[in-house]
Amino acid sequence: MEPMQTNYDRAHSAVTSDKTASPPKVSRATWLGLFVSLFAMLLVRQSVSYFWPILTFTAAAWKETLLWVSAIILLFIIRRGERLPLTSIGLGTSRWWKSILWGLALAVICGGTAGVLAALTGYGHGPGSAAFEKLPLWSITLIVLRAGVVEELFYRGYAIERLQAVGLKRAWAAGVPLVIFALGHWTGGAANILIALALGAILSGFYLWRRDLVANMIGHGTVDFIANVLPNLFS
Question: Taking a C-beta distance cutoff of 8 angstroms, is the pair 176, 154 a contact?
Fold first, then answer.
């Protein structure tokens, strides 16, 4: 007996296996999910910056809270709106120990790339970095962990999968959120955009290859932890 297909599997196979068929009907929940995944972080950042132009502890607390709320909303859309399993965004698609190993390998690659680009561009010495480093270390730790989880959920797992589901080819499905992800780092200047673009490309390519969002989260979070927490921890 053939295994039963989920609704997501049917929609995904309709896009990938039959190029002559008409695009699958996309629910309103999916369009809403794409809006949240692609633009929620930008809207939250701009809203917080409007009230607190300079990063403070209060501003960081509001920003982090709103970003976690946005992530919860997206998960609610997936489970209740689209009625799809979390495997449809790359969660639970691999054994936990494989996700850890691949995540650490991904962290090494991304960390090496980020180190080279930071050295070449002099990134990390601007006023934005100074304000960030004044936050309590525990707050910085929570921020980098959130970045690894929420940014990968938004720009890799959900956006790539659903953009393919609405009919975009793999390259476009990965490229559109990658550009938005990179440009969303404009507050750190051109160097930050370049680093985000390079690391985002590595993370996107890895997700397309392995479709393991947990590994992406581990790799992303580890790199941010090493870059932002360890120097303060031992200084």
Answer: no
